[in-house]
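ingest -> validate -> predict -> emit
validate: passed (alphabet ok, no gaps, 145 aa)
predict: started
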Amino acid sequence: MKPLNILFVILGLAGLIVVRSLEDKLFFDPFLAYFKDELKANAFPKFDDTKLIFSYLLRFFLNLIFSTIIIQNLFRNKIWTKQAIVLMLIVFAIVFPIYLYCIYTYFEIGNLFAFYIRRFVIQPMTLLLIVPIFYYRKHLLTTSS
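emit:
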């Protein structure tokens, strides 16, 4: 891997770390405190629908940008990068409405289910799945040639 690619991977990771470490300052999310102190049986937080949805969308797109930088510089394959973007968009399009349903039903399905669905909404969990898949794909392509 070229030094410039390594630098961009590090910058992408740093971007994801900054988004995560500043989440309480950058985004409106009353569920951060709710899930941190869930064992203390906090009351269900009040929230502004529009502000909450916009905040989740902003966070997703920031994570998507940094994840795209990482994938492009790890594999240097524009087709794979496009596939990764599409996959991340599909996963978000599936889990985000499910999470919103959980919120609007006051986690009727269960706090633990909502907690893990929320992870796919606010964190780059799909990236953690895509990178090993692409490395395996790369390995298959190099061994079959």
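The chain has a mean pLDDT of 93.
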